[in-house]
Structures are given as structure tokens and as C-alpha cells.
């Protein structure tokens, strides 16, 4: 998927339970101004730390809710992002 400069895109819609782990593998075109993670229906963000392209990272869901994977492109260039979600 493409993410325009200074925008956020959300994908998927996953019903997750509290204390469930989510694993993400994200690859993206070059920029160091990217933020990736999950966001709940109640707008609580869980951003992954120290994101590098092709890294596999795992995070824990705080509460039972519907979640989306989000990508924030904080650069001034359009980027391309691909990823895998494993619950």
C-alpha cells in the first residue's frame, strides 16, 4: 500500500482480547520517519519501538477491542509499505 506524505493509513479490522500478542512484520521504502503499530476502536495507540524495515516485532494488546494496523508517514515523501500480521 502507498502512504502519502504526512498521513496515516489503517488496514484490517481485528477483534483482539486483552493480553493477546500481535506480531507484525513490516517492510517499507526508505524513510526513518515512520510510525507503525496498532490502534483500538477507542483510539488508543500502541506504537512499535525502533522500527526497521523487515523487522518482526511483537506487542501486547491492553484491552479487548477492535484494532487496526496503522502506518504513519511523517516524511515529506510518499512511501510504499507491505506487511504481515500474525495473531
Q: Brief overview, please?
A:
It is built from no helices and eight strands. It has strands at residues 2-3, 7-16, 21-28, 34-40, 45-47, 55-60, 65-73, 79-86.
What does this structure look like?
- This protein is mainly beta and 87 residues long.
- Helix content is 0%, strand content 61%.
- Strand 4 and strand 5 form a beta hairpin.
- The protein is globular.
- The two termini are 21 Å apart.
- The relative contact order is 0.45.
- The model has no long low-confidence stretch (mean pLDDT 88).
Average predicted confidence as pLDDT: 88
What composes the largest sheet?
4 strands, antiparallel
Which series of helices and strands comes N to C? EEEEEEEE
Sequence stretches where pLDDT stays below 50 over 5 or more residues? none
If strands are numbered along the chain, what order do they take across the biggest sheet? 1-8-3-6
* Rg over CA atoms: 12 Å
Q: Which short descriptors sum up this protein?
A:
four-stranded antiparallel beta sheet; single chain; 8 strands; mainly beta
Helix and strand arrangement:
Layout: E1 2-3, E2 7-16, E3 21-28, E4 34-40, E5 45-47, E6 55-60, E7 65-73, E8 79-86
Antiparallel strand pairs: 1-8, 2-7, 3-6, 3-8, 4-5, 4-7
Amino acid at each position: 500500500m502507498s502512504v502519502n506524505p504526512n498521513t496515516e493509513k489503517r488496514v484490517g479490522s481485528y477483534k483482539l482480547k486483552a493480553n493477546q500478542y500481535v506480531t507484525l512484520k513490516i517492510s517499507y521504502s526508505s524513510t526513518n520517519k515512520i510510525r507503525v503499530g496498532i490502534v483500538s476502536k477507542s483510539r488508543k495507540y500502541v506504537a512499535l519501538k525502533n522500527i526497521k524495515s523487515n523487522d518482526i516485532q511483537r506487542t501486547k494488546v491492553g484491552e479487548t477491542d477492535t484494532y487496526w494496523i496503522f502506518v504513519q508517514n511523517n516524511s515529506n515523501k510518499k512511501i510504499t509499505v507491505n506487511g504481515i500480521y500474525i495473531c
